[in-house]
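U., I forgot to send this yesterday:
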Amino acid sequence: MLSPKMARIHTFDVVPSLPEPLKPLLDIAYNLWWTWHPEAAQVFSRLDRGLWRSTHHNPVKLLGSCPQDVLDAAARDEGFLTSLERVQHNFKRHMERTPWLVRKKKSDEKFTIAYFCAEFGLAECFQIYSGGLGILAGDHLKSASELGLPLVGVGLLYRNGYFQQYLSSDGWQQEYYPELNFSTLPVSPVNNDKGQQVKVVVDLPGRALHIAVWRTQVGRVQLYLLDTNLPENDPADRGITSQLYGGDMEMRIKQEIVLGIGGVRALLAMGIEPDICHMNEGHSAFMALERIGNLIAKHNISFDEARQYAASSHVFTTHTPVPAGIDRFPAEMITRYFRDYHHRLKLDMEGLLALGRENVYNVSEFFSMAVLAIRTSEWANGVSKLHGQVSRSMWKNIWPGLPESEVPIIHVTNGVHARTWVSAELIQLLDRYLGSRWQEDPSDQSVWQSIKEVPDDELWRVKERNRHALIIWTRRHLRESMLARGANPALIEARTEALNPDALTIGFARRFATYKRGTLLMRDTQRLLKILSDTKRPVQFLIAGKAHPADGGGKDLIRQLVRFANESAAGHRIIFLENYDMDVARHLVQGCDVWLNTPRRGMEASGTSGMKAALNGVLNCSILDGWWDEAAAPNLGWSIGRGESYANYDHQDDLESQALYELIEQQIVPMFYDRDSLGVPRQWVARMKECIATLAPQFNTNRMVQDYTEKLYLPALRRSRSLKEDNLKHSIELAHQKEKLHKAWDHIRIEEVKSASGQQVGVHKSMVVTAVVHLDHITPEEVQVQAMSGPMNHEGQMINQMLTTFAHVEDLGNGRHRYEGELTPSQSGKYGFALRVVPGGRMFEGIYEPGLVRWDSAAPGIAGAEGPGHA
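Result:
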């Protein structure tokens, strides 16, 4: 092997030599549009099915490896060329489709959204993702392309990606990190006008770090990926973009500096100045600091003046339901990495550190990337209805004095990209009965109702073909894994042949973290064995998932499952599939009959794998958590428990495992095997149809991206453009107004309240309330006086609160003002109200400023309303 140490090596790129009729294949191969169009994938597969499989479905590598005689034969094959022409036509139609915003007359403004994420799951051959977060980000880009949204992605290009998994003979997870060869992947360097790759620089302690920019095309969306594996960098720094979620805290902060600060600089180097920046999880939160620093340098303004505009254009999505899942760094580490950087923000180091603390005065608090993202964004959301509630509870201390229900974190429930995850068989069926609308108008969710017009037997035949395909694939996958472990050939044959293509097949696939309870199924092994031993109504479980390399508890769960499968009498009915990735996931969600999910309630932010299954008519059986908490209905699947909370986890596991066995034995198995004379389980198929018709329109990323656009992107665009006018005039005014209010806030007080309190008021009758408020030198136009009213519960707390804004009626002099409002109860019972003062005026509409809430005597009895605190 010749090395660079022995001789200077000149490099050049070798690309596939395609016959002229096949040249369109290159454009399609380098655009990940093919990943959600089965007919495009089938064109590549037809060239060489074995090579397609061995390249892990990588069209770029396939075209470069395909024998020339095969390519020449395809160029003469009229059937192949007809298929290619049809794919090329569909590809062109996609790229030229009128954007949804224009077609629906929602907006014709020109703007750009930059979507930052640490991982993107786009295709199994492109391993720069670990799991749910990355696949969601990939699906977000695909839907943005379908909708024609003006969005670009920003991420990291990992040389080794996320680890690949294999199991030792005793079931213990092992990891390895194969290196990705960029020259055989659908990714290309971004070059400048001189033909040189675009590079940017960020500062690390005592050295400069150079970052190269690459691009991959996702339909109409450009995804820009950052790479530090450059000869001009220190050897250790070249590995910053080596592994996803690899290394220690030191590596993590360097990766997040590259993603956030390097990402903004890369966009600017390419001439892209995004109007909106979306931080998908807190990994990219340093992006906010870089944008603020750029505004300060350009306009010579203060940090607060720049932050007002920047925050108005930042959207932050949190995916984490527990504080322990947030990236947090010790103050010493932030100080070391930002020792020089903080000067360009016109902040001292203490001011910078305070941006990452919930309590800005607690100097011992770690620097949280989520808190930094929240403090530098006016728009924030969780990823399901329940997760929105959990997030408001998690971060309520950032807004002291604000009831939890008003904490400005909304929810946009996750979805999945339909055409990526629906089986090719089902797509063909949908095309016949739904027509072309579901492809040509991705924003129209009503088309899914047409699934009810599909004859039961046709849908059931598709389901059976998908299950059979899954079992064939599983046998091959299992055989390869067992051979690699050196298993006995007779055992391999016995285990693979034991898989039954006609048996009720239950899937469970997700990250193996302990809170997801991957072994809840084995809580009572005797009862489980009874289910597995039924030969008349067979049941089999297909399980997949990776534990983080540092998660010994998660690895032990996998080991327990594998040992049970290996040692128990009916263990052959439980199969653990190694190396969970998009390919494994696709086979499972398309072929299983039931999708199982067993997290501890409140710990699953969303859980998109169940959505992928639902799109394929797979019925969910799940704890009421994440998305299933808002989706569950008796005609769609099964719920384990009723959403109870438990203090004792052992007791919870006992109860919920028994509930799961009961569902399988008494409802799921009987319904699946209850067949008519044609062999069709009519009640089961009715649920499949209801599942697709109800859940597919709601839990897909086309709907999700529309929600992001209408609830967050467009409002952020309007507000940020308002603040940007006249060289950030309004942003500067807002910063000064906030400073003025903060200085005066301790002097504001509600002095007197008069009402019919204590007396009886008729339902729908109005009660007049007057208040005298001391505003000191603040004018009435700068604040709002509001009453929060609602029924009182048995604990003396106000529930179902409603806000009423009072009118200013009189200036009493010496900073005192009289306000008046009417409260109208809508039902009988005990009611209550409390008064507060909050900032007012056009620039505060819909915006809550931390620390600027003044209650009448701290608003006792309002759930979630704390007294004055730090902000």
